[in-house]
């Protein structure tokens, strides 16, 4: 009689389990790769949009060239624009900068196409020095075309405040606005904000200033009315200065509706109300006497 030993999991069974585990981990890795790639693409697109907004601000606000701004203590950018048709190849340009009593250094350049037939030439430094003058020169084909001096701490251009949130308070005609400041360590107390608000059907914005705080209560608003609210930021100009950031995206919210108070609910302590009631009582008594 032939006996059969119990199957305790031979090599083929173990191989099958390993194969399933490998397939599972490969699928997980593929999913993470797709998510990471999508996140990187989204961040890259958003970064390009943010840079484009800052370029637009600098073209309007800074009359000098090259136009320069600091996004943080370790993030400094200068750029200038030229007509696409007249621009030379990148190797024909040089950007040199010098700090006081130091030898000059060269900043690597890159160029990107811009709107309206322009091309931007960009220098980016990760370790700019502050509280010392920076002198810069731009050459094209060996000839000086731009020359400028500045202090890095005076040209900050921050990202707009994030997570702008608007909620109703328990009182009529009020809205509570909060936001998250740009992530700059030890500089929160140097930030000044503008909170701008308007009814949704109006282009007349009202502005409130806020210093070293990330919250504001708007008062005196119309009841039962939809408002749009936005916030921007700059440094206060004491130790650090610069330009107003772009506005945050507008947040829409409706204020509490008006409450109609009946005569039976008028405050009894109000002298004018008591007098009005006496007049009504007197008139009523006079009619009954007729």
UniProtKB/TrEMBL annotation:
It is found in: Membrane. Its main location: membrane. CDD domains: FN3. It is a single-pass type I membrane protein. SUPFAM superfamilies: Fibronectin type III (SSF49265). InterPro entries: FN3_dom, FN3_sf, Growth/epo_recpt_lig-bind, Ig-like_fold, Long_hematopoietin_rcpt_CS. GO terms for molecular function: cytokine receptor activity. GO terms for cellular component: external side of plasma membrane. Keywords: Disulfide bond, Glycoprotein, Membrane, Receptor, Signal, Transmembrane, Transmembrane helix. It holds the Pfam family fn3. Residues 160-258 form the Fibronectin type-III domain. It comes from the Eukaryota. Gene3D superfamilies: Immunoglobulins. Belongs to the type I cytokine receptor family. Type 1 subfamily. This is Fibronectin type-III domain-containing protein. The lineage of its organism: Eukaryota, Metazoa, Chordata, Craniata, Vertebrata.
């Amino acid at each position: 009689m032939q006996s059969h030993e119990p199957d305790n999991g031979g090599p083929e069974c173990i191989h099958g389990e390993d194969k399933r585990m490998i397939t599972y981990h490969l699928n997980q890795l593929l999913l993470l790769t797709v998510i990471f790639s999508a996140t990187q693409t989204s961040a890259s697109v958003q970064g390009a949009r943010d840079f484009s907004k800052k370029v637009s601000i600098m073209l309007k606000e800074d009359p000098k060239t090259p136009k320069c701004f600091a996004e943080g203590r370790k993030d400094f950018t200068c750029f200038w624009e030229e007509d696409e048709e007249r621009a030379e190849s990148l190797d024909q340009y040089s950007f040199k900068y010098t700090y006081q009593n130091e030898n000059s250094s060269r900043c690597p350049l890159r160029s990107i196409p811009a709107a309206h037939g322009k091309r931007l030439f960009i220098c980016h430094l990760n370790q700019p020095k502050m509280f010392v003058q920076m002198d810069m020169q731009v050459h094209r084909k060996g000839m000086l075309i731009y020359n400028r001096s500045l202090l890095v701490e005076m040209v900050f251009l921050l990202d707009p405040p994030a997570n702008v949130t608007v909620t109703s308070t328990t009182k009529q005609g009020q809205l509570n606005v909060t936001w998250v400041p740009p992530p700059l360590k030890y500089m929160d107390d140097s930030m000044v904000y503008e909170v701008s608000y308007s009814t949704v059907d109006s282009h007349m914005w009202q502005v409130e200033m806020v210093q070293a705080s990330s919250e504001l209560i708007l008062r005196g608003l119309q009841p039962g009315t939809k408002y749009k609210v936005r916030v921007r930021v700059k440094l206060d100009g004491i130790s650090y200065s610069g330009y107003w950031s772009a506005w945050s995206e507008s947040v829409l919210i409706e204020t509490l509706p008006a409450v109609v108070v009946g005569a039976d609910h008028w405050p009894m302590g109000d002298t004018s109300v008591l007098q009005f009631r006496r007049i009504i009582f007197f008139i009523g008594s006079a009619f009954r006497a007729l």
